[in-house]
Amino acid sequence: MKRAVFPGSFDPLTLGHYDIIERGLKLFDEIILAIGVNADKKYMFSLEQREHFLKESFKDEPKIKVMTYKGLTVDFCNATDSGFILRGLRNPGDFEFEKAIAHTNRKLSQIETVFLLTSSGKSYISSSIVRDVIRNGGDYTGLVPDAVRV
């Protein structure tokens, strides 16, 4: 079985994430949407809300699992017997950042990272932009899946 982990904070899940996950389903038998838990980070949405966003958005997709984890992503991959990490790239800055992480993960474990380019119509969307729009009372509904529209 080709299992991939798609790690992130998903604070919140965006249409950019959704795009990568949907396209990743064509490549993998199973994708684990892995919500990283970092006690030092301030989140806009609770862990329970973020889990709900993911589970609700993919409730009809049997190839998707939603899990949480702490620590190194490669350790989580090994614990879940996942041979791949799935990541999305929006721009050259993402590539440089993600490339360094992928090389480090490959050095620590034999986990392969698979990069997908975000679709052009969604490449500008990031969780930080969505949070800023929400904080300032803007209309964020065109940036997130239905389950996130609170």
From TrEMBL:
Pathway: Cofactor biosynthesis; coenzyme A biosynthesis; CoA from (R)-pantothenate: step 4/5. It is found in: Cytoplasm. One of its GO terms (biological process) is coenzyme A biosynthetic process. Its cofactor is Mg(2+). It comes from the Bacteria. It catalyses: (R)-4'-phosphopantetheine + ATP + H(+) = 3'-dephospho-CoA + diphosphate. ATP binds at S9, F10, H17, G88, L89, R90, E98, K122, S123, Y124, I125, S126, S127, S128. Residues 5-132 form the Cytidyltransferase-like domain. One of its GO terms (cellular component) is cytoplasm. Substrate binds at S9, K41, T73, R87. Belongs to the bacterial CoaD family. Homohexamer. This is Phosphopantetheine adenylyltransferase.
